[in-house]
């Protein structure tokens, strides 16, 4: 299907908005270039068998305008150094200003260049084939190499930036566990495969009875072979994207059904009413939400949750897990009319709930012949009744959400701590 002129006009407008300022881009590119050169000199002096390459959007010139920029720099070590990454990384980057150690599946360094510009220094293993990889980051070099061969025009570079901007705006950009969305690499592959953002949206928005499978290099003979060859965990995502550098890998394994549904809703909205707004992050006006809740007689609560875990994917996933657990607990006593969760890059997240109290809830008790637990249940509950072979009780919900949360927090101190939450406060 041909791209409508109206959509192209909007996309061209967006391109201007998402392209970084020339001065900022030149500064970052030159800084990365100089840093790379200086690091290469250090590696030679230390006689370490390693090479350095730039990955991410900086390697492909698909940098998108944002509040904070990250440049990925990979140190590719020979196999003989596979057990000493940490030691060698320290030797190479000792003395580097604003250096921070980040713990992950493999430790790496983060360097603050400016308030809005960081370098991420990542150790990887030098592999000839994907099967030799010990960590997903070891495939980064192969990914960069493949994409640089495939990206042959400014047009496709622009389309990749548009795809990233679209997903970033609707909250589906990132493979992190608190997002479960499209990684940058996956979006690059999909944009190349479909030939641009419009076709990507049109094809992924289709109501497919069968699972969507994209095998851009035709590494498999057919779809049934894909389903037979990949293990079950790699087939759970709503879209299967065969990594063109490694046929046993689904590059979209992190994509959840929830996030994909969110993406498709954004696609439908954009196709129905093409607008610049589809590329702008929709900020929830909590004052309006609160006002709307009060008008309908609902209760509004806003909370701040904090964790003691490392910022980024770890902190974000722990905070999201706690928010989901809290939602379940609240849902036992209240009808949740609206809710929201937001995490940035720190150790804190904010969330809100709009609820209506249930009149009463039915609590499951023990079996009638379970004497010990029946006595315990009788001490804790009042309005009890027997149905079948079990005892139940009715509990009136004559308390507010605020009162419930204050009480729940006191009763569940151990549970909260076990979920790595060290702060849980109503704002």
Tally of DSSP β-strands? 15
Q: Low-confidence stretches at least 5 residues in length (pLDDT < 50)?
A: none
Task: Give me the oligomer status.
Answer: single chain
Strand line-up in the sheet with most strands: 1-2-5-4-3
Terminal Cα span:
50 Å
- Major β-sheet, in short? 5 strands, mixed
Which structural category fits the helices and strands? alpha+beta
CATH architecture of the largest domain: Orthogonal Bundle
- At CATH level 3, the topology of the largest domain is Poly(a)-polymerase, middle domain
Rg, Å, rounded:
26 Å
Fourth-tier CATH superfamily name of the largest domain? CCA tRNA nucleotidyltransferase, domain 2
Q: How many structural units, i.e. domains?
A: 3
Explain this structure.
With 427 residues, the protein is α+β, with helices and mostly antiparallel strands. Helices cover 42% and strands 24% of the residues. It has helices at residues 5-18, 22-45, 56-60, 85-93, 140-150, 154-169, 184-194, 197-204, 223-229, 257-272, 286-296, 313-331, 371-380, 401-411, 413-418; strands at 50-54, 69-77, 99-102, 108-114, 117-125, 212-214, 239-243, 246-250, 299-307, 334-343, 348-357, 360-367, 383-387, 390-396, 421-426. The longest helix has 24 residues, at 22-45. The model has no long low-confidence stretch (mean pLDDT 92).
């Amino acid at each position: 299907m041909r791209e409508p002129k109206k959509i192209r006009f909007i996309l061209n407008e967006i391109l201007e908005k998402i392209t970084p300022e020339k001065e900022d881009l030149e500064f970052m590119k030159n800084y990365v270039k100089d840093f790379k050169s200086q690091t290469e000199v250090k590696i030679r002096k230390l006689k370490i068998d390693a090479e350095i390459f730039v990955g991410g959007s900086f390697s492909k010139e698909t940098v998108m305008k944002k509040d904070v920029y990250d440049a990925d720099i990979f140190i590719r070590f020979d196999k003989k150094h596979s057990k000493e990454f940490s030691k060698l990384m320290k030797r190479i980057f000792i003395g580097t200003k604003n250096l921070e150690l980040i713990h992950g599946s493999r430790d790496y360094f983060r360097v603050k260049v400016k308030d809005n510009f960081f370098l991420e220094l990542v150790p990887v293993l030098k592999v000839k084939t994907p099967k030799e990889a010990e960590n997903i980051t070891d495939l980064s070099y192969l990914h960069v190499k493949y994409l640089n061969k495939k990206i042959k025009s400014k047009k496709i570079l622009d389309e990749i930036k548009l795809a990233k901007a679209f997903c970033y705006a609707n909250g589906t950009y990132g493979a992190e566990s608190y997002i479960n969305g499209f990684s940058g690499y996956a979006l690059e592959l999909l944009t190349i495969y479909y030939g641009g953002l419009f076709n990507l949206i049109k094809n992924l928005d289709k109501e497919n009875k069968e699972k969507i499978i994209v095998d851009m290099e035709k590494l498999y003979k057919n779809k049934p072979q894909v389903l037979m060859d990949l293990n079950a965990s790699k087939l759970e995502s709503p879209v299967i994207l065969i990594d063109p550098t490694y046929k046993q890998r689904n590059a979209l394994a992190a994509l959840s059904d929830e996030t994909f549904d969110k993406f498709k809703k954004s696609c439908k909205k954009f196709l129905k009413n093409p607008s610049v707004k589809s590329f702008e992050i929709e900020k929830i006006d909590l004052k309006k939400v609160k006002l709307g809740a009060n008008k309908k007689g609902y209760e509004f609560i806003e909370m701040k949750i904090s964790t003691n875990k490392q910022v980024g994917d770890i902190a974000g996933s722990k905070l999201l897990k706690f928010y989901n657990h809290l939602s379940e607990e609240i849902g036992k006593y209240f009808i949740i009319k609206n809710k929201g969760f937001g995490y940035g890059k720190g150790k804190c997240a904010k969330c809100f709930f709009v609820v209506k109290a249930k009149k009463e809830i039915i609590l499951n008790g023990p079996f009638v012949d379970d004497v010990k637990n029946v006595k315990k249940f009788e001490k804790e509950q009042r309005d009890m009744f027997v149905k079948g072979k079990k005892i139940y009780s009715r509990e009136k919900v004559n308390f507010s959400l605020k009162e419930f949360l204050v009480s729940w927090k006191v009763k569940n101190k151990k549970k909260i701590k076990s979920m790595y939450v060290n702060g849980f406060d109503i704002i």
